[in-house]
Every structure is written in C-alpha cells, then in structure tokens.
Amino acid sequence: MLTINLIAGSWLAIIVLWPEMNGIFNPYTLLILSMLAGNAVYTLPSIHASVLGMTQILGVFIPGILGYPSLPPMYIALYAVLHILAFILFRTLWQRTESTEARNEALLSEYRKLKRRIAADEESARREERAQVGRDIHDSVGHKLTALVMQLEVFRMRNDMEPEVQNHIQKLKQLAQESLQETRSAVKTLQADEPGGLPAIMRLIRKLEADSMIKIHFTVKHGAFNAPLSNNQSIAVYRAVQEALTNIMKHSRSREAEVIFEAPGGSVFRFEIGNPGVPDAKFREGFGLTSMRERIEKCNGRLEVIANRDRFIVRGTLPLNGIQIHTVDGETS
After folding, report:
1. Is the C or the N end of the chain the one with fewer CB within 10 Å?
2. Highest mean pLDDT, choosing among 35-49, 146-160, 313-327
3. Which residues lie closer than 8 Å to 204 by C-beta, 6 or more apart?
4. Are 249 and 289 in contact (CB under 8 A)?
C-alpha cells in the first residue's frame, strides 16, 4: 500500500507540476520526486523501492516525449543516476549500521549476563568464605572457651577455697561464658546472608544502573547512614526502593531517577524516589505500590505517592527509636 501511495504521489506531482503553460520548466518537481524516492528507500524493501524509481524515471521522460516543456534527457538521466547511486550508498550504510547495532545489543546483553554471573560468583565466594571463617572460629575459639568454662567449674568443685576466691572463680567463669556467647553470635552473623539496610540498597542501585542503563542520582543526607533502622524497617525500605525503581524502568519515558535518604533530627527516617517524565495516562495504584504501602505501615510508617504532570514521587517515612508518626492535615509529624 505504501508503494502504491508513493507511485500515485509521484505521478500526481508530475501531472500537476511538470508542464507549464508559459513553457518554463518547473524544477520543484524533481525535489518532490527526490523526497518520495528517499522515503521509499528508507521505508520499503529494495524491490518495491526499485519499482518506484523506475516509475519515476518513466514519468519524467514521458512529458518530453509528449511535447511538454522538459529538461534535456541527458540532464534527467544524470540526475537519476546520481540519485540511484546516492540511495544505494545510503541503503548499504544503513544496513551496515543496523547490523552493527544488532551486534552491539547482543554484546551488551552478553556483558550484562557476564556481569550478573560475576556478581553471583563473588557473592557465593564471600558466603563460602564467611562460612569457613565461622567454622574455624567455632572449632577453635568456641571449643577452647567451652573447655575453659568446664575446667573452671571442675576446679571450683574439687577444691575447698575461701568464699572470696570462689567468687573470683565464678566471675571468671561468667566472663568465659559471655565470651563464648559473643563468639557464637559472631559465628551466626558470619554464616548469615548479606546484611540489609543502606549497603544492600546501594548494591541494588549499582546493579540496576549496570543492568538497565538507568541513571540514578543517589543522595544521602546527614544522619541517614547512622539511622538505627530495625531489620524489618531495612527490608521495607529496600523493597520500596526496588519496587519504585522497577516501576520507573517499566512505565517511565525517562531513564533517570533520584533517590534521597535523610534522617531529620534523628527521630524519623525518610526516603524519596522520584523521576521526571510521567506518562500522560491517569495514575492508578497497582499491586506493587499497595504491597509497598502495607509493608511500610506494618513498621508504623507512612507512604505517600505523588503523581503530577512533571514528576512522579514515592516518599516514605519510618519512625526511629520507637517514635510514632502522626499525620495532621496531610503533614507528617
């Protein structure tokens, strides 16, 4: 259909613009024919573009054969040859560019897969190393502290000592037990997964930037790094940032986002994820945002979603140190 439309447009341009009543040739016709031919070369397969080109050449020569004012045939032939060579060169370079872009996309995809594989291998290696260190501590220090506690108890039971000496031995035994407990806690920490909180969120941001080619402006204001977030609060913030950035990648026309963390006064922890270029469609809160809101509210926090023509913002506030968040006339206090 596009080929037929372009052929009809070419013939219409020749019929309307080519012959002149005063005998003067109108060169504007060649410009329109060149634009139509360029459109055909850019959008149509080679066979269809060739059919259009042959139709235009035939249409250019017919007015001269019929006696209408026209350019010399040699000039028209030279003009047609130059255009054909230019279009062939353009088509060749365009196909070469498309092939190069396809190879670049394939290489970029392989690079992303390799990066993810390397990150997974590094995480696995760190986990194995932590587990090995934990086993070593448990097998050496833990066993020796256990033996020390037992020997102190045996020594206390076998010997009749003054009450002051017994109290001193009891304190040594208690100190050894506390050291053993701390050692076991350290071993459990080493054998656990990666810690959450802000470091995990920073790793998430770096991963999204590398995998999805999205530019993220990350700002940590005073007090945010030292904010005493609980484990549930850290997980809630992590999931909220993850969901918000994922929605930006899926629905936003902009490949840019802004993440802000702050802890004003040390009483609340506030995070904000925003980006420009909100779609024109009406905003509707889906399952992801609903789950995010429920997770924040379980931590006694508050989530705000602001959508306008220029910007989309997800803002959350969590209490610190047991402080409750109250809302008065839309303001958080």
Report:
1. N
2. 35-49
3. 238, 241, 242, 245
4. no
Distance (Å, rounded) from C-alpha 59 to C-alpha 81? 15
CB 221 within 8 A of CB 273: no
Residue 110's pLDDT is what?
84
pLDDT tens digits along 177-189: 777 777 777 766 6
Order of strands, edge to edge, in the sheet holding 311-319?
215-220, 256-262, 268-276, 311-319, 302-307
Residue 293: which pLDDT band, with cuts at 50, 70 and 90? confident
Amino acid at 182: E
Q: Which two tokens stand for residue 46?
A: 């080679």
Q: In angstroms, how far is CA 106 from the centroid of its own chain?
A: 18
Is the separation of the CB atoms in 251 and 295 below 8 Å? no
Which residues lie closer than 8 Å to 305 by C-beta, 6 or more apart?
283, 285, 289, 313, 314, 315
For residue 21, pLDDT over 50 is answered with no
Of 331, 264, 263, 325, nearest to 298 by C-alpha is 325
User: Which residues sit opposite 331 in a β-bridge?
Assistant: 328
Give helix 28-43 / helix 2-17 axis angle, nearest 10°: 170
Q: How far is Cα 220 from Cα 215, in angstroms, rounded to an integer?
A: 16
Backbone φ and ψ of 33, nearest 5°: -65, -40
> Do 183 and 145 contact (CB within 8 A), yes or no?
yes
Contacts of 91 (CB under 8 A, 6+ apart): 41, 46
Express each pLDDT in 162-209 by its tens digit: 777 777 777 777 887 777 777 777 766 665 554 455 666 777 777 766
Q: What span, in angstroms and rounded, lies between the C-alpha atoms of 315 and 312?
A: 10
